[in-house]
Amino acid sequence: MSVSVIVCNGCCCGNLEKGYDEVPVEFLEQAWVENKLGQEAQLTISGCLGPCSMRNVVLLKSEDRLTWLGGLSGEEDYESLVNWACEYSRSEIEAVLPEGLQKLEFERDEDFELIKINV
Ligand code: FES
Predict the structure, then answer these.
(1) Closest-CA residue to 118 (of 68, 20, 41, 49)
(2) Is 119 part of a structural domain of the chain?
(3) Would the CB of 45 count as within 6 Å of ligand 1?
(4) Tens place of pLDDT for every residue, the chain, 119 residues?
(5) What is the per-residue pLDDT for 118?
(6) Burial degree of 19 (CB within 10 A; 0-12, 13-18, 19+)
(7) How close is the Cα of 55 to the center of ligand 1, in Å?
(8) Residue 88 counted as domain residue
(9) Is 13 in contact with 20 (CB distance < 8 Å)?
(10) What is the pTM of this model?
(11) Is 54 inside any structural domain?
């Protein structure tokens, strides 16, 4: 199964001056390499995805759905994301998000143009 993991590092997400938590881009990129994630779980560090107020946003784009996560903070959340991506990419069935990330899920009402982030 394949999934795109789109991590926002735009104008607000990760912007310490605005009071947002840092987005650990280097950690994520390194984890993707170390775990040989690539084809099945593609990592994109993106510009603003739109819902800035949700703070440190991640969009998971699987074959049949979009899952929005907001408010990621600290190593634990990002490690969970890496572990989930590993499980997802190696599984025949869709891996369930860990509880810690499920709590961060939100619905997005507005239309969203995926074209902007090229996924
Ligand atoms: S900067 Fe991340 S959603 Fe706007």
Answers:
(1) 49
(2) no
(3) no
(4) 789 999 999 999 999 999 999 999 999 999 999 999 988 899 999 999 999 999 999 999 988 889 999 999 989 999 999 999 999 988 888 889 999 999 999 998 655 555 455 44
(5) 47
(6) exposed
(7) 7
(8) yes
(9) yes
(10) 0.90
(11) yes
Q: Which amino acid is at 38?
A: G
- CATH number of residue 106's parent domain: 3.40.30
Closest ligand 1 atom, residue 8 Cα: 2
The alpha carbon of 61 and the centre of ligand 1 are apart by a number of angstroms equal to: 16
Do the domain assignments include residue 117? no
Give the pLDDT of residue 108.
86
In the chain, how many domains are there? 1
**Which SS3 state, helix, strand or coil, does residue 100 take?**
helix
pLDDT score for 10: 95
CB 60 within 8 A of CB 80: no
- The side-by-side arrangement of strands in the sheet containing 41-46 is 41-46, 3-8, 58-62, 66-69, 105-106
Q: What is the pLDDT of residue 115?
A: 42
- Provide the domain limits for residue 107: 3-112
